[in-house]
Every structure is written in structure tokens, then in C-alpha cells.
Amino acid sequence: MIPAQLKDKVPPHNAEAEQASLGALLLDPDAVPHVLRYLRPEDYYVNANKYVFSAIVALFEKGQKADLITLADEMRAQGTLDNAGGPAYIAKLTDAVPSSANVEYYAQIVRDGSVRRSVIKLSADIRQKAHDDGIETSLLLDELQEHIFEISQDRQSVTYKSVKEIVPETMKLIEKLSKSTSQYTGVPAGYPDLDSMTSGFHDSELIIIGARPSVGKTAFALNVAAHMALREKASVGFFSLEMPDVQLMNRLLASEARINSEKVRSGLIKPSDIQSLMDAASRLYEAPLYIVDVPNIKLLDLRSLARRMKSERNIQVLFIDYLTLVTHENSDLPRWEQISSISRSLKALARELRIPVVALSQLKREAEGKQPSMADLRESGSIEQDADVIMFLHRDREIEKRMDERSPYIPTELIVAKQRNGPVGMVNLLFFPNFTRFESLDKQHSGH
Known about the structure:
- The protein has a nine-stranded mixed sheet with strand order 3-2-4-5-1-6-7-8-9, with helices on both faces.
- By secondary structure, the chain is an alpha/beta fold.
- The protein has two domains: 4-153, DNAb Helicase, Chain A (Orthogonal Bundle), CATH 1.10.860; 187-445, 3-Layer(aba) Sandwich (Rossmann fold), CATH 3.40.50.300.
- The longest helix is centred in the N-terminal third of the chain and has 28 residues, at 103-130.
- Strand 7 (410-419) and strand 8 form a beta hairpin.
- It contains 19 helices and nine strands.
- The mean pLDDT is 84.
- Helix content is 50%, strand content 12%.
């Protein structure tokens, strides 16, 4: 609903700049790729100009240059020539500007008008939704923040760099790494064999941890997140979409204190364990670990909240437990297509925030009882393409059957099946189910 005082106002635009930008492109067709940094056909307010620019772009994509003849022919093929005013209007455009020298300036003016119209439309939409008591205020604010961010970022960062710019940046990074006291280039997970293989979790990476149910995905992710927050002093975000935050904290406390998690959950703690529990609680109380407890969170809300956490808490790693519980905005899409879109969005989020994003994933039922492979990732083959690192937790059921029932641990394999910038391989871990805790075989050198 648009306020009455605004209904009669013409939306922001500059018709002269629109015509000048098109006239300049006709004078200099080689300027099209430069203008495409700023503009798309929908950025033009006057329909005739929108039709003309669409045809110019279509010719550019075909490798042809726009002039009075080719442009009229293309618009005729698109069925827009008459609606735009015919060949006479195209000829008029070349008279609108003396040269193409200021074409990018004209394009920026057109873009400015488009942004202002987008803001007006967003304001009207949000105003209408704000009157709906059925929409939570927090969701309303998140949606507003998300759309403002999209408007501000749209086409602003699409550019290129020369190697003259990239070489100094790269040398600075190498110099920084050479002076670092850490042997790893990313945030260590706390398992020496894994960290030796990956050199830690790196910025802009999408890391997938897959397993069948009850193998310990959440426990492993929590162990890694706790190590990063407690021992690496990294700020960590953890989206728990399956487990309430209090239950998650029970697991963290049991793991840190090495106390039976069932006893922690039920409150049946031995007096001798109280001090260990208090010490663990004290350490976790100070940890820069931020938990989001929202079942079936929408992808839009997840991205919006992740940006807030980066801005407000400077999170350095983000965990999502787990990927297929994220809700896509378009529920009409096939499930595999929704998961593909979510996977791509998480990779884009990792690049945008320049942090590793770690997403847990269920494996297909067919993976039960056998060593998992990337083909076992559930509901989407695109996860395999989008991910920089893919790991699987796996237990050999035959070995598990032969284990003494009194054994406190279960041997577990962590398989690094894909690593875009490093080797693949396997790491042997021990899972202590009573403590919901994974430890390295060589516990003395483990960060856990």
C-alpha cells in the first residue's frame, strides 16, 4: 500500500539520461560491457528505453554491434519495435548525445533512479507487512535487512583485477602466514591428523560433513566448534536446526567435563563430577560461541542472521546442523532443486562473509553399512560440486560388533573424500558415546 501523498508522484528516473546512455551505446557499441556493470533492462523506467536496451544486450550476446539497422531488426524480431516508437525513436536517440564519452556517467544516473524505485517499492511492501500482526517483528526486520543488502550489493562488486593488484595482495598474505606462529593456514579443528591434511578450515570454503543417523555428526561438529571457540579463540556461529539450545549445551558440558551425557541431562551427577562440570561451565561461559536455535529456518533468514553475526560478533566460522533442515522460500520446487539452491547459497555466503561455512548432511539410506562416497549425499548432486571439502563419518559395523561392550569408545573413520586445495584420505578417531566426544587416536597431541 503506497501512502496517498506518494501515489501521484512520478517514480524517480531521468528520461534524458536514459536516452543519452542508449544514444552513446549506438555511437560506441564497444561500451556495452562497461555499461553492463551497472545496468540491466529492468533498470530503465521508460518502457521504450527498456526495449531498446534489451535489444542492444541481445545483439551484444550474439557478438553483433548495435546500429540503427541491426537494432531495428532485433527489436522487430522481439516484437518491441512498434511499442518503442519505431525506427524514428531509435534515430532520435543518436541525436540525444553528442558523443559516447560520458556513457558510464549516464548509466550511473539511470542506475541511481532504479535503486531509488527499488527502495520505494521495498518501503511500500514492508509498510504493508508491518500492518500484519501475523508476521513476527524479528522476521520483518530480517527481511528488510536482507532486501536492503541485496539492493546495495547488486552489481556493485562485479569487476576484475589486474595481476598488478593481485600479486601484492598475495605476497602480503604469504608474508602474514610466514610470520604466523600457527602451523596451519586456516582455523584448526583440533584433530592433528585432520589438521595436517586440511591445514585447518579456510575462509570462503563450504565444508560438508556427512553421515548416516546416529554416527555422531552433531557431536563431531560440536567438538570442532568448541575447540575453535575455547582453544583457538575464534568466534563461532552454530545454527542448531534439530536440537534445542539447552540440549546442545548439555552435550557441550558433558563433552568438556567428560561426564556421562545422560547423567548431565537427567541431573544425576555424582558429587565427584560437580567440580568438573562447574569448570567446564566456566570455560564455556566465556567462549565466543553463538548458538541459533530455530527449527526449519528459512534460507533467507539464515543468510540474514549470518550477516548480522558477522557484523556484530565477527564470527570466523559458521556451522549449520543440518543442511536439509533449511527451508527454501519456494516450496513448490522439487526437493533436489531446493537443496541445490541452498547449497549454492551457502557457498556464496562463505565467499561473501569470507569465513568457512560447515554444513552437516544426512546420507542416503543406501549408505548404511558401507563406506560412504559422494554419491551418497542426500537429495542433491550439486552439493558435491559446490563443496570445497567433503568429509564422512563412518563406522565399520563388523569391527563395532567385535568390540567389547564395556569398551568406552567406538573406532570411527573420518574420510576426507574431497578437498579442492589439498589431499584426500582418512583419519582414525575414537568416539566416546557416553561423553558425546570424539578424540584422536593420539590423544596426547589432540586439541580435544
